[in-house]
Amino acid sequence: MSRRYAILDVFTNTSLSGNPLAVVLDSEGLSDEQMQKIAGEFNLSETVFVFPPENPGQSASMRIFTPKVELPFAGHPTVGTAILMATERFGEVTVEQDSVVVLKQKIGTVRCAVILKENAAAFAEFDVPSLPEPAGPTQNVELIAAALNLEPSDIGFENHAPSRFRVGPSFHFIPVRDLDALARARPALSMWQAGFGKDGHGDAYVYCRETRSHDSAFHARLFAPDMGIPEDPATGSAAAAFAGVVNYYDDLPNGTHHIRIEQGFEMGRPSIIDLEIDMENGGMHAVRIGGQATLVARGELFV
Question: What does the record give as the active site (predicted)?
Answer without folding.
Answer: 46
